[in-house]
Amino acid sequence: MYRISSLTVLGTPDDAVPYARRVEPAQLANTERVARYLTDTARMWHQLGDGRRTFSALRSIEHTAPKEVHLPAIRTLTADLLYTPGSLPGRREFAVRTGAVAA
After folding, report:
1. Which spans in 1-100 are helix H?
2. pLDDT tens digits for 42-66?
3. Domain ranges in the chain?
4. Could you tell me if 46 and 81 are in contact, meaning their C-beta atoms sit under 8 angstroms apart?
5. Distance CA 46, CA 94 (A)
6. Over the stretch 63-88, which tens digit does the pLDDT of each residue have?
7. What angle do the packed helices 13-22 and 31-47 form, to 10 degrees?
8. In Å, how far are 1, 89, 93, 103 from 35, measured between CA atoms?
9. Which of 53, 58, 13, 10 is closest to 35 using CA atoms?
């Protein structure tokens, strides 16, 4: 699981994709680990320019560990997502709900 984070930080998120696909979130030990996996996966998809998958991971974080989406790093990622091209219904509302942008 830590390879996803490491490879993304090193600037090779495409190498992290196979590792992300191998992880089954339901098999992780606790909510914190699931939230960490989803956060790392959201960052990976964001670096790859996949707004849809980034948003999906962020919404999964909100569902799994609601307090996590209010952390500064996640709010920054959410705010960045607002400027991603393409239609992502609900992203503005999500950003407001999580405190990434003002209402």
Report:
1. 2-9, 13-22, 31-47, 51-64, 72-81, 91-98
2. 999 999 999 999 999 999 999 999 9
3. 1-98
4. yes
5. 16
6. 999 999 999 999 999 999 998 888 89
7. 140
8. 12, 23, 21, 25
9. 58
